[in-house]
Design a protein that fits this description.
about 110 residues; alpha+beta; two-stranded antiparallel ribbon
């Protein structure tokens, strides 16, 4: 396991991740930071905890929407080979798990 320093909304956090996932975690944190910063500008009086929760929920909603679009494409007769569909599904599941894990660590 590796420890990575990330920065979200001006605060630094030390997060544990699997070896080799450090860059991915940094990119995820940067994405979350941009989302939180944008929401903070729109909602200046919201608490940091609610801000983080709203950002995580918004990102999860986007993941679910992407999953629904992939299923709609499949139902519309657009053939996706099993490797592509499986890879996309695994990527979405992994991203959702990372968001959940990060949220849990921020709450902890």
């Amino acid at each position: 396991m590796s420890q990575v320093e990330i920065k979200v909304h001006g605060r630094e956090y030390r997060v544990t991740c699997e070896k080799g996932q450090e860059d991915r975690l940094q990119k995820s944190a940067a994405f979350l930071d941009k989302r939180v910063s944008a929401m903070s500008a729109d909602l200046p009086d919201i608490s940091e905890t609610r801000l983080m929760l709203l950002a995580a929920l918004t990102i999860c909603d986007e993941l679910f929407e992407a999953r629904e679009r992939a299923l709609d494409l499949e139902d519309a007769g657009v053939a996706l080979d099993s490797d592509t569909l499986g890879g996309a599904s695994r990527a979405i599941e992994a991203a959702a798990k990372r968001v959940s894990d990060i949220t849990a660590k921020l709450d902890g």
